[in-house]
## 1
Amino acid sequence: MKGKLTVLMVTAFVDMLGLIIIFPLLPFYATRLGASAAMVGALVAAFSVAQLVSAPGWGWMSDRYGRRPAILFGLLISAVAYVIFAFAGTLWLLFLSRIIQGLGGGTIGVVQAYVADISEGKDRAKSLGWLSAVTSLGAVIGPAIGSVLVRAGGHTAPGLGSASLCIFVSIFAWRFLRESKEATTTHDHAGVAPSTGAGAIRGVIVHPKAPASRLIWLYAVAIGAFYGTTPMLPLVLADRLGINETNVGYFVMYIGGIGVIVRTGILGRMIEWLGEVKLARLGLVFLAMGLVSVARIYTYPTMLVALTLMPVGTAFVFPCVTAMLSRVVPQRDRGLYMGVQHTFGGVSRVAFPLMAGYGMDVFGKGVPFVIAGVMVMMCLVLTIAMEDSPQPSIADSPPAAA
């Protein structure tokens, strides 16, 4: 198990490194081409639109044909996207690159399902936390690399660098990453038809009180509030603290660094102390407080508070929610439901940037972060009685569609 997990983490780290190299540069590239804040929000959302459309398909494919081929194809698609980003001289090419990035990024649920496949139930949240930690480490290093590449090689260098990393890690994964699903096949449960993406999505909507549905809704709001608004954070920092594209990477790097420290240093002990449900609640509170604090950023100390609370909150919420989801859905549909979770998260990550961009243009740069924080706090109601959620047998029908 450790060998497979190590190879997967190396793959996930390099993949995230490529994505994050260009992540904080997007608002500056877009505004240089004449984009408004609302247009920047649309560019951010384009990634999530493509991801939400592709995630259930990737999950279904990985359940039926294996996690490994899905991960490899996703990496190669991402490499194409970064090349387009490198040479994008118009807004429509930036949109195209973001859409293709989203198609490749739809495999994130497959990666999480891989971890769930090879982890014992009691260690699953911790393993998912380690996976998040290595991707956060990519978020620590990537922004600084992006800023260095801009200074050293011009505006094409970050995109070409990210594409090179994707090609490198796809070769590495093809050579060393082994399939995780030897013990799980489509014939494991005779007479039980596998779920479909459309059926699983419909079940989450029609049965919102089911354990899996509540976890997916909670995940969707929290991830939208964080990842849907933080891409707009450079606009706040530029307006109030004079930060620009040559140094913004270091501030995004700090957010990722806090995530790495929490996930590798204290997450496991916090899970043992509080349990997954209580820790997820605490994470929601921290995330909400951090988002609201962004609206008050006028000094560096206030910025430090906001940029600390947000990653601590997400480090607590996301591994716990994903681990709980992996247990309340049947094993045969784990990849599918991980994909569905990211579909709902993708819808949220479309809505939040669009609303944030519009809100910045109309109401001011801090207002969207306050609204996002309030919505995260409201998610606490979804955790009521979650400790008593049933744990289905492998052959159970999906609880979200029951």
## 2
Amino acid sequence: MTADASIEIAGAGPAGLAAAITLARAGRRVIVHEAQAEVGHRFKRDLQGLENWSTREDALAVLQAQGIAAGFRQLPCRQGTVFDAWGRAYSIRSDAPLFYMVERGSGPDTLDTALLHQARGLGVEVRFNSRLRQTQGPAVFATGPKAADAIAVGYHFDTPMPDGFWAICDDDIAPKGYAYLLVMGGKGTVKSCMFSGFKQEAVYVERTVAAFRRLVGLEMINPRPHGGVGNFRIPTTALSGMHAVAGEQAGFQDTLWGFGMRAAITSGVLAAHSLITGDDYDRRWRQALQGTMTTAVVNRALYSLLGNRGYRRLLRYLEHRPDIRALLYRHYRPSHVKHLLAPLARWRFHSQRRDESCNHIGCSCVWCRHGRGQHA
């Protein structure tokens, strides 16, 4: 690849824009194709968490080291409340932020808009309503999830409630997952994040709203329904033909709870570096992400076995921990025990995604997926 060759990126999500920013900072000409009319189209100003426990370094410092500016509004979250199925409240706390609450979508202070502004400021050309269907030159594919291994369904709303976060661990509200309520700056998101029972999503959302009204006095003004999906897998390869695949299109996510923004951004940065240096992208992402992702699959398999009584025991344990961030960091680190459990966990947890392939020689298709494999 010559230094003046245009690099095309499919998708203007965090992974695609992180790749574009990294390439532009290295002096490359970049064109981003986004099929929708705006960034963050599928999120509609959703409040989400940028997790801060998978590295010792603070998440915002890691972004800065990757060349990604944190020009978005964020709320550091150090303390919150989690309820069990019987309505008992457990306080969890962390010395440093456990996560940063951020807004997604096309609003002025969202994570997506901040990435877009940074990319454009570096000279990246972003084409909206443009779907990249075929490319002959260097490219990165980052078009989002291709299957639903988990769904988060509920409402966005205005509210007079104070900033904060609350969660409920109850399989009758969020099967194998959790329900959550996030509030920041007079805006709120309430959802059931479920890993099974998708056909009954309306029932679980209704139960979630009723539970938060009863437990914390949920106040929703002008509620707007919203839902999203998560796709979790560890690919055998994150290459489609000769092209790097980043973000959830490749399956890079947190299989335990779905905190995947950092993995998406990191994979975009790594994909860009592989184009700049000619390094092996698969080697890069495996070194940076595979250990944590494999551990998350084991954590997901173990969590799915707990049930409501198990969640209650877990919350009792967490309530007495002085620093939840430090505890989660340890549980997200690869270990000998989790390495031994990984094959069983992969057997128990199967992604809904099934890879497709095409018969084209020297494939240049954007739609096909060649990540043959791994089952998580």
## 3
Amino acid sequence: MRIVIDRFEGDYAIVELPDRTMADLHRRFLPEWAKEGDAFEIRVETVSHHELKEQISRLMDEVWED
């Protein structure tokens, strides 16, 4: 999904979505150098509950390994 930064308001970037609606996006999700007019490609992934649980379990095993 492609978004374009319209403007900044405080801690938020007001971005235009592909359907031309506007949305608030917290600045922490953008690079520090982002400015008005910049376009970004956002990738959205869907992960099943089962897959997510397995990923978390593997990460926990890595953290707690001796």
